[in-house]
Design a protein that fits this description.
There is one protein chain. By secondary structure, the protein is mainly α. The protein contains nine helices and two strands, in the order H-H-H-E-E-H-H-H-H-H-H. It has a two-stranded antiparallel sheet with strand order 1-2. Strand 1 and strand 2 form a beta hairpin. Helix 2 runs parallel beside helix 6, helix 5 crosses helix 6 and helix 5 packs across helix 7.
Length: 268
């Protein structure tokens, strides 16, 4: 093996698979809580500069961890034969609801304050936080025996949760109808991209029997999300797609209304 392959092999180090609400899970929840507390205590310093630092730190770190995960899952080394093979894991392609905050954060670092940035940040605040909350409450399907992947999973989701709370807490995402509608437009754009990817990649012939289900809305594969999998099996695909959009929009609406209520309470 060359030095690059040795590093990848080392990064494939394993641990006992963490359990929901076990020590590994609780440590990351505690870190997220401390990060939110730290940002709250610095509320007198909220500024465009601080916002971009938070977005850059999350976006760059999450992107690096994602790239490492993609590489170590594609890299296969047989210590008996010494044979090295590469096989990309299509099901793990990084375009899910929970990975879009990486791209949105990095784009917003370079955007000036305005309608476009407000709507993109509102998408993180109201929509992607749903995936973060799901992972906080039910992390079972996300935790594996590979150390780097577990670190990536926790940072990706809980880090995104911290960013979402920070955006609302700092007032950077104001609880207005315009921002919520804008967040829905961004969500719809990502859904359209995911659907286009699902259809084009499936018909490209490169999957070789593997699953490719971005945003879990592929018309060719059943969603692996709880409840959504049952619904998709029971109804026609167009109805399922509508159900998916309505369900996530409803969830985002609840987050938006909570933000409205907390903001009014603080003002009083």
């Amino acid at each position: 093996m060359n030095i690059f392959e040795k590093i990848l092999y080392w990064l494939q180090g394993t641990m006992e698979e963490p359990q929901a609400w076990g020590w590994f899970h609780l440590i990351w929840i505690a870190l997220a809580a401390l990060a939110i507390l730290f940002l709250y205590l610095r509320r007198n310093y909220y500024s465009d500069k601080q916002l971009k630092r938070v977005l850059a730190f999350y976006g760059i770190t999450a992107l690096l961890l994602e790239l490492i995960k993609q590489l170590i899952w594609a890299f296969n080394y047989n210590p008996v034969t010494g044979l090295i093979t590469w096989d990309y894991e299509w099901y793990a392609a990084p375009f899910q609801l929970c990975t879009t905050p990486i791209y949105v954060s990095l784009v917003c670092v370079f955007l000036k304050k305005g309608t476009l940035r407000d709507h993109m940040l509102s998408y993180i605040a109201y929509f992607t936080i749903l995936g973060s909350v799901s992972t906080i409450l039910m992390p079972d399907s996300c935790l594996v025996s590979t150390i780097e992947v577990n670190i990536h999973t926790m940072f990706l989701h809980l880090g995104s949760f911290v960013v979402s709370v920070y955006l609302m807490m700092s007032g950077e995402v104001k609880p207005t109808k315009d921002n919520f509608i804008g967040s829905f437009k961004v969500f719809t754009m990502f859904v359209i991209i995911a659907l286009a990817l699902n259809i084009s990649i499936y018909h490209s012939g490169i999957l070789n029997g593997e699953t490719f289900n971005m945003f879990y809305i592929s018309p060719y594969f059943i969603s692996s999300l709880p409840v959504f999998d049952t619904v998709q099996k029971a109804i026609l695909y167009p109805v399922y797609l509508l159900f998916y959009i309505v369900a996530l929009t409803l969830g985002a609406s609840i987050i938006y209304l909570i933000n409205v209520g907390v903001t009014k309470l603080i003002k009083r």
